[in-house]
Specification:
Elements lengths: L3 E3 L5 H4 L7 H5 L2 H16 L14 H15 L2 E5 L6 H10 L16 E5 L4 H9 L6 E7 L5 H18 L7 E5 L5 H9 L2 E4 L13 H9 L4 H15 L8 H14 L4 E6 L5 H15 L1 E3 L5 E4 L2 E4 L10 H6 L4 E8 L25 H18 L4 E6 L4 H22 L10 H10 L6 H13 L9
Parallel strand pairs: 2-3, 2-4, 4-5, 5-6, 7-10, 7-11, 11-12
Antiparallel strand pairs: 1-12, 8-9
The structure holds 5-phosphoarabinonic acid.
5-phosphoarabinonic acid (PA5) binds next to loops.
Length: 466
C-alpha cells in the first residue's frame, strides 16, 4: 500500500456533531462525485488534462537521465531559476529523497552536483547562493512555462552575466531552458541562441508540472530515482482515478475538506511529522491555494471561495502552532503526514546521571516522533478538532510519487466540488501588471497612471521606531 488515508477523526462520532461529519453527508456527495468524475473523464479524453497521464510517458525517464548525465559531468552546482510551480515541486521532492545532499562533500554525493532552487529575487539571498558556487562549474536550469515571469527573467539576466564574466562566449553551455514547446521568449532564445532546452508539455500548468522536465530534470541530476517516482504516481493512479467515492482516497479527502469548509473549518493545515516531507507541505500550500482560491465560480457568479492552506511541522510546531489548533477558533482541519517506518531508528540510550530521563531509555527517536503524532491527534480529537492522517509506509521515490499524484488529483477534483477552475490563477495577474508598470515596461502606462492616482489620493500613514 503506497498511501493510506485515515479519516476516523473527521467524523462526528470522534469530534462531535458541531465539527465532525456524518456518514450521510459523505453519501450525499456520491452522485456529485460521479458527475465531477465524468467531467474530468471527458476533459481528459479531450486532451485538456494532460497532467493525469504524465507518469505513463515511457520516454521521459530515458530522456531526462541522458541529459542529467551531461549535467553531472559538466557541473558541481546546479541552480534552478524559477518560481511557484516551476520550483516548489523540485524543492519538496529533493528534500524528501536527497535530504542533506548539499551538506555532503563531493565524494559522499558520489560526485553529483549540489542543487540550489532559487525562487526569489531577494538580492542578498541570490548573491549569497552565487557566492557559494564557481561560475565555471555551475549550470542553470531556467524554468518558466510562460517565459514572461519577471522574477525568473531577472534571475536569468543576472546569472547569464555572472557566468559570461567567467567563461566568456561559452556561457550558453551553462544554461538549459525549460519552457513552453512553442511560444515565449525562452523558447525563442533557445531556438535563436542555441541554448539546450526541454519542453513543458502543452496544457500542463506550473503547479501540476513536477512530473515533466520541470521537476524530473533537476531531480535526476542529483540522483533521485525518477523512474521510481513516476512508478509510484502511476501505481497511485489506479486507486484515485475512479468514481467510487468511498474507495478513492483522493476524492474522499477532497470531499472531507470540502464538507469541513462548509462547516466553517476553512483552514487546511498540512502537518508532516517528518523533516524530509517538510517542503511537501509548501508545495501543497501553493497547489491548494492557487487552484481553489477564486473570486468567480465556473458559472461566472462571484463566490470568493477557497480554503486557506497552512504548513506546520511535527513535532517542531507542537511548541508553536498546536496551542492555537487545540484551543483557538474552530476553523481548521489538521491533516498529518505520517511516516510509518523511518530509515533510521536512533535508539535512546541510558544515562544514569540523569534519572529524570530514564523513561526514555529503550525507546527511539522513530518511536517518539510517531507517539507524539498520535498524542497530538488524540488531544485534538478530545478537543473536538477535526483531523485526519495520510500515511506513507516509508519515504521512498514510489511513496512520494504516489503522494504527489494523489494530492494533484485531490486538488483537481476539489475544484469540481468548489465549482471553480482549479487550473487558472487570474488573481495573481493584477500585481504582475503593476510590477511591469513600476519597472517602466512599455504598454503598462495605464497601470502606471493608476499607481500615481492611488499615491495622490491616499494619505501616507507610516510610523518609525528609532
Ligand atoms: O502554478 C502556476 O501556474 C504558477 O505558480 C506558475 O508556476 C508560476 O507563476 C511561474 O510561472 P512560469 O512557469 O510561467 O514562470
Amino acid at each position: 500500500m503506497l498511501i493510506t488515508l485515515d479519516y476516523t477523526n473527521m467524523m462526528a462520532e470522534a469530534v462531535g456533531a458541531a465539527n465532525g461529519l456524518r456518514e450521510e453527508e459523505l453519501a450525499g456527495l456520491t452522485a456529485r462525485t460521479r458527475e465531477i468524475h465524468e467531467q474530468i473523464r471527458l476533459r481528459r479524453a479531450a486532451g485538456e488534462l494532460p497532467f493525469f497521464d504524465l507518469p505513463h510517458d515511457p520516454a521521459i525517464v530515458a530522456e531526462m537521465t541522458r541529459l542529467a548525465k551531461d549535467v553531472q559531468e559538466q557541473f558541481d552546482n546546479l541552480v534552478v531559476l524559477g518560481i511557484g510551480g516551476s520550483a516548489l515541486g523540485t524543492t519538496a521532492i529533493f528534500n524528501a529523497l536527497r535530504y542533506g545532499h548539499n551538506l555532503m562533500d563531493a565524494s559522499q554525493r558520489l560526485g553529483l552536483p549540489r542543487l540550489f532552487v532559487l525562487d526569489n529575487v531577494d538580492p542578498d539571498g541570490f548573491a549569497a547562493h552565487l557566492a557559494l558556487c564557481d561560475p565555471a562549474r555551475t549550470g542553470f536550469l531556467v524554468i518558466s512555462k510562460s517565459g514572461t515571469t519577471v522574477e525568473t527573467s531577472s534571475q536569468f539576466l543576472v546569472a547569464r552575466q555572472w557566468v559570461a564574466a567567467s567563461v566568456g562566449e561559452r556561457y550558453r553551455e551553462h544554461f538549459i531552458l525549460i519552457t513552453d514547446p512553442k511560444s515565449g521568449i525562452l523558447r525563442e532564445l533557445a531556438d535563436r541562441e542555441g541554448y539546450r532546452s526541454c519542453a513543458i508539455p502543452a496544457g500542463v500548468g506550473g503547479r501540476f508540472s513536477v512530473f515533466t522536465p520541470v521537476g524530473l530534470l533537476p531531480l535526476a541530476c542529483v540522483g533521485v530515482d525518477i523512474a521510481g517516482l513516476l512508478k509510484g504516481a502511476a501505481d497511485c493512479a489506479r486507486f484515485v482515478c475512479h468514481d467510487d467515492l468511498m474507495t478513492n482516497p483522493a476524492y474522499l479527502n477532497a470531499v472531507l475538506q470540502y464538507l469541513a469548509y462548509r462547516r466553517g473549518l476553512r483552514i487546511t493545515v498540512l502537518m508532516p511529522y517528518s523533516d524530509r516531507l517538510r517542503y511537501l507541505a509548501d508545495w501543497f500550500r501553493q497547489l491548494w491555494a492557487e487552484s481553489l482560491g477564486k473570486q468567480f465560480a465556473t458559472d461566472g457568479s462571484v463566490v470568493h471561495v477557497g480554503p486557506t492552506p497552512v504548513n506546520a511541522l511535527g513535532t517542531t510546531d507542537q511548541h508553536s502552532q498546536v496551542q492555537l489548533y487545540m484551543e483557538g477558533p474552530f476553523d481548521k482541519v489538521v491533516t498529518f503526514l505520517v511516516v510509518d517506518e523511518f530509515d533510521q531508528e536512533l535508539p535512546l540510550p541510558e544515562y544514569p546521571a540523569a534519572p529524570q530521563m530514564a523513561y526514555l531509555a529503550g525507546h527511539s527517536l522513530a518511536e517518539l516522533i510517531s507517539i507524539e503524532q498520535q498524542a497530538t491527534a488524540t488531544a485534538l480529537t478530545r478537543n473536538q478538532r477535526a483531523n485526519c492522517a495520510l500515511h506513507l509506509p516509508r519515504v521512498t521515490a514510489e511513496s512520494v510519487g504516489a503522494l504527489v499524484y494523489m494530492l494533484e488529483v485531490q486538488t483537481l477534483f476539489a475544484g469540481g466540488l468548489f465549482e471553480v477552475d482549479p487550473l487558472d490563477q487570474p488573481g495573481v495577474e493584477e500585481g504582475k501588471l503593476f510590477t511591469y508598470a513600476l519597472m517602466g515596461r512599455k504598454g503598462y502606462e495605464a497601470q502606471a497612471r493608476q499607481l500615481a492616482e492611488q499615491k495622490g489620493v491616499l494619505k501616507p500613514r507610516v510610523l518609525a521606531c528609532g
